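Reopening this ticket.

The earlier resolution said the output was attached, but the attachment link was broken on my side. Pasting everything inline this time so it's all in one place.
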Amino acid sequence: MSPKLIRTLLFVFIISSFSLVKAQQTTAGGTISGRLVDAANNQPLELATVSVVRKSDNHTVKAMQTDLQGNFSLSGIEDGVYQFRATYVSYLSFLRDTLRIAPGRRTVNLGEIKMSQAKGVLKEVTVTAQKSQIQLGIDKKSFNVEQSLVSQGGSATDLLSNVPSVQVDVDGNLSLRGSTSVKVLINGKASALTGGNIADILQSIPASSIETIEVITNPSSKYDAEGQSGIINIILKKNAQKGFTGSASASVGTQNTYNGNFNIAYQNKAVNVYANYSYRKGTRIGNGFSNKTTIADSINQFQNQINDQQFTFRGQNIRSGIDINLDPKTTLGFSNNINIRNRDRVSSGLTTITQNGNLLQRITQANNSTGSGTNLDLNLDFNHKYKKKGEELSANINYSKDKNDGFDDLISQYDVFNPASSLYTRQNNTSIGREHDWNFQADFTDPLKNGKFEAGIRSQINQSDDNYIADTLNNTTGYFDYNSFLSNHFIYKENINAAYTSFQHQFGNFGVQAGLRLEDSHIRTTLMDAAVQNHKQDYLRLYPSIFLSDKLSENQTLQLSYTRRVQRPRDRQLSPFLDQSDKLNYQQGNPDLRPEDTHSFELSYINYWKSLTLTSSLYYRRTNGVIQRITTPLTPTNLDTTLTTFENIKSASNAGYELIAKLSPSPTLDLTGNLNIYYRHLDGDAALNLATTSGYAWNGNLTANIRPFKKLGIQLRGDYQAPQVIPQGKMRAMYAMDGGLKYDITKTVSLSGNVRDIFNTRRFRSDINYNTPYLASNQVSERRWATRTAIFTLSWRFGNNLPQKRKEKRDNNQQQDQDNSIPDDGGGLQGGGGNPGGGGAQGGPQAVKPKGGAR
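Inline output:
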């Protein structure tokens, strides 16, 4: 990494981040608890609303309803100064004006709060429920899908493309801060659902079935070490409210897009039962071209490929579960998730090859394909809280299986000129894929004085079996014959056993968390070809992590972190089978690929104004043994056919600066912007004809939420990806704009609409160059996943989660203030405060912001 680059990034970081403004600092970890009772008879007040409001910007950060005994516990509250509010029908509102969450004061027990019935004139109070669209932390960002108007009626892919730091390419593949080595979790756990064709799976999941997307850029040792650039955690909807709740929505749009979603749940002090069903159907129209120029001696050859395709997705997602409270401190939960998906694709292509201006070949292709998949996830969860506050044992057993089947009917017409000849071929391809995963995990947390100790074990057993059968038409008999030359059967087995420990301690305003994770990995692959090919990889590695945090003032925190990460090669990257289905572009895996080894550093700073939130991160990743796609001529002098395979190159470095800003200048407008500027350096390899490449790139997006009047919300989002270097060339710039709006017809019914890619500009373009001693080649490509789509959605809420119009008797004061009756900030440190290395999946209740008299 050059000194010039270091100076540049440090300058940008200092200028943007260290604008010292007094505001509230936030690190996870505080808890506010208590019990609401009637002041006259001490009877508990059940289903009363309690909320914690940040004083700096009057933003509700946590809210819930009391249980049947009037108890409440609001946890995960970041350090800062808050107000506590409690409201109940026909009772005076309760307000505690100042509560401080800070190191040494992270557990506040308000005790028994007595609320008096109101006397006087009846007034209406409207309570609305809305989560913040994005919650920013130093190590993690949580994105709430319900507030993404441009994604409503879309898929998980559409939603992820709107999450800061995340990019989605033309094939639906994910990248994080410019790196495609990212780990995807479902509800905080690995799943066969994310181990298959992730692009198809994400297209089949409706955005409406997702509660939250979490992005963890530098995970602690508590998490799997896999994922060079971090973790994307997709949290599916689960009930978090007392009583009976439900919602339903239906969508219709252009390109045969239809969506349906239904949620229902019930919770009391004994059980929590929930179910969700989602259906999605949509068509995506894509196209592209590729122009390749090859020069060898006196030969100048030009190859042009154009293609058009149409995908139709149909997906169903069924999630249900039950949590049983065996006793006040022990919970047993069972949940399942079923994903059923189908995909039909119709594509056509035309390839022409000219040499020195003369037409040599013309290839016409048509392909009709169908695919289907079913995934089942079963989870058994156990949680026990000990008498000591914060001491907890949790365990999970997860079984997941996935089935993927596909069929292709490929018709090709080869016309050769000089001398003239023609060849007609037809090939049927059947793919049969099966995957089975087991996950066993246990975690223990023990709070210490001014700290916390965590430890856990985990074992993963995964196996995938992919059988690809090719049958070609016999032009003489008219029958299809099995083609062993094009067929292959590949088996991948993986067993990873891990143990971790983590210790956290707070020295006043300075915090340290150190962790160590040991992973023992065993990978076995088998190619069931004419001659069976077996390969294995075994490695034992330690993955340390350390997080240093300094609370510079009441308003700002600085954090420095280091983690070691790994990216293991996947099954298709390891399979030695030579795929010749495309006569001009062969592909082959490499069974000798080794895992990537990444050392990741991050310096983060977060601060708040009353109307502006800024999160800054300066990061650096060095990856040894980088896995890269390498494209070369099939033979040194071949002008027509290329071979794409995978190789470990020496190393790569990524350094960058990321800024996320959320501005709320008025109640009718808020803006969220994400800017990521990075420098990429890829070491060359003379043996692979790879030159050293490096360069700056950046991407950014801006989302505007406008509320011109109470019932109408408007959202606009624009994104831009600047050109960036790749091993053999560069990706060109890409940009697009999306828009959406939502109108609340009633308090329970709303209508929304959105348009994705308003100006039809979202295209993926690349330039690839490769040279050998015999020839030089340049290839310019352009592809697009989908064209512009418009979707309209009608939503309905019912049960306890809908806004209520409450009749409250109110006196002249309109509230009772009992500040003097409650000890300031309550108990001492419990649990040692927040975990600077991040945590697991979060999915708390909706935030409730009272309106009217409940101020």
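Reporter confirms the inline version is readable. The longest helix spans residues 3-17. Residues 5-28, 119-131, 802-855 have pLDDT under 50 and may be disordered.
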